[in-house]
Specification:
Radius of gyration: 22 Å
Largest sheet: none
Low-confidence stretches: none
């Protein structure tokens, strides 16, 4: 027979009470930045193909990429490249069997986030 006290049992943790761990967030962000970089590469390839096609078509593509929204997309792409790079280094470190305990994994996660922001600022200031 069905459980008649179903309403008395506690529910499993839901989004309101669950605190996402930093390691899960950094993993999700790695996948998001990887997919976002595909879009950025497509924009740069479009720009290069436009340069090889005609002056008018290049002017259109260049206007898009050098506009304020193009600057934002390319700047966020630099952030994505650095984040994805640091995530790859962390992954290699994990694959070697190091840093798998929770405190070290969280420190490496914060290092990825802070490091990618700092490296992005340095890159944008240099370029």
């Amino acid at each position: 027979m069905a459980d008649v006290n179903r309403g008395d049992r506690p529910l499993s943790p839901h989004l309101q009470v669950y605190r996402p761990q930093l390691t899960a967030i950094t993993s999700i962000l790695t996948r998001i930045t990887g997919n976002a970089l595909i879009v950025a590469v497509l924009l740069v390839v479009w720009w290069l193909l436009a340069a090889a096609t005609s002056a008018e078509y290049y002017a259109t593509a260049n206007a898009v990429l050098t506009s304020w929204i193009g600057d934002i997309v390319l700047s966020l792409s630099v952030l994505g490249v650095w984040y994805h790079y640091l995530a790859g280094l962390r992954h290699l470190y994990f694959d070697a069997g190091h840093g798998l305990d929770i405190p070290t994994a969280e420190k490496l996660g914060w290092g990825m986030i802070i490091g990618s922001v700092v490296l992005t600022i340095i890159t944008l200031l240099i370029v």
